[in-house]
Automatic annotation (TrEMBL):
The keyword Membrane does not apply. This is 3-deoxy-7-phosphoheptulonate synthase. The chain holds residues 71 to 333 of 348 of the full protein. Its EC number is 2.5.1.54. GO terms for molecular function: 3-deoxy-7-phosphoheptulonate synthase activity; aldehyde-lyase activity. It is an enzyme of class 2 (transferase). Residues 17-258 form the DAHP synthetase I/KDSA domain. Keywords: Transferase. The keyword Repressor does not apply. GO terms for biological process: aromatic amino acid family biosynthetic process. The lineage of its organism: Bacteria, Bacillati, Actinomycetota, Actinomycetes, Streptosporangiales.
Amino acid sequence: LVSRDNHPVRSTVRVGGVPIGPDTVTLIAGPCAVETPQQTLEAAQMAKAAGATLLRGGAFKPRTSPYAFQGLGEQGLRILADVREKTGLPIVTEVVDAHDVPLVASYADMLQVGTRNTQNFALLQAVGAAGKPVMLKRGMSGTIEEWLMSAEYIAQRGNLDIVLCERGIRTFETATRNTLDVSAVPVAQRLSHLPVIIDPSHSGGRRDLVLPLTRAAVAVGADGVIIDVHPHPEQALCDGPQALVDGDLEELARIMRDFPPLL
Ligand code: PEP
């Protein structure tokens, strides 16, 4: 279902009316985690100022440590819905448990499946049946073939509104949190008709790498990027070191503006 063999034309997925696909480079930005109404609104305003047309923000956070901030849950979803109301930005947010899919889908414009859940097949089937577009991250140790098979689980449930997201993979390198596999973009685009975007924030895990990796994403032909921004990253409850700050936004906007879509 997701293979390009049976569907030669590359697809565009619409999220609350915003297209992600071959004719555009969509900027999705926002906080890694929803922390407070004020922080989420400020991050959304930062995102909008940089040209983002979709707001990201996690209410359910899949953290490596059980002692780390796990997200605000439904309270976080309510904050996101309120910020959507105020900014007009449709919401992309993660769901980590199949049982929470109806709840998260009742607020979200797009459901995100994170790298740790790329082969959680019950979750994939549940989001496939939820009637909302899905962003599917690549497993941090997953091959492109495995990633596409995960997308197939979603598609099998009748949902072809899937966006693939390369977010870095595990390699021997320790200088970066993950190694961004830029080649995954053209490879996945050749094998699948689904749009492919890049997450330069979770790939590098470092603020100073986000803009260079965004340039790489756009240059390699990614259909979009998803980027963490935070008004006060030093106080962030999740992934502060990779969040862009106010001073980065002009350059981010310039990158998105100056790279014409590769048609
Ligand atoms: C995220 O985008 O908030 C996230 C946790 O990403 P990943 O699943 O790629 O680690």
